[in-house]
Design brief:
Elements: H1 2-10, E1 13-22, E2 31-38, E3 45-46, E4 50-51, E5 53-55, E6 58-59, H2 61-68
Parallel strand pairs: 1-3, 1-4
Antiparallel strand pairs: 1-2, 5-6
Length: 69
């Protein structure tokens, strides 16, 4: 994540939203979702983590809603 933020600064991008993605609620995040905008001075909003699986092979309700869109 530090490297990503350094690249944003280098290219004058400012992160606006940040969300970690966890495979399961009890596991550490292994992905990061970031929304960034050029030359923007807005505040960074950290969103709650997105948990992918409720149990083995079964998506969480939020994840299933994302796929159903």
């Amino acid at each position: 994540m530090v490297e990503l933020m350094l690249l944003f600064a280098k290219y004058q991008l400012n992160p606006r939203r940040l969300r970690m993605v966890q495979p399961y609620a009890d596991k550490e995040a292994n992905l990061l979702l970031v929304e960034a905008r050029a030359c923007d001075k807005g505040k960074l909003v950290t969103e709650p983590p997105l948990v992918v699986y409720a149990e083995q092979g079964c998506y969480t309700k939020e994840m299933q809603e994302i796929y159903d869109r």
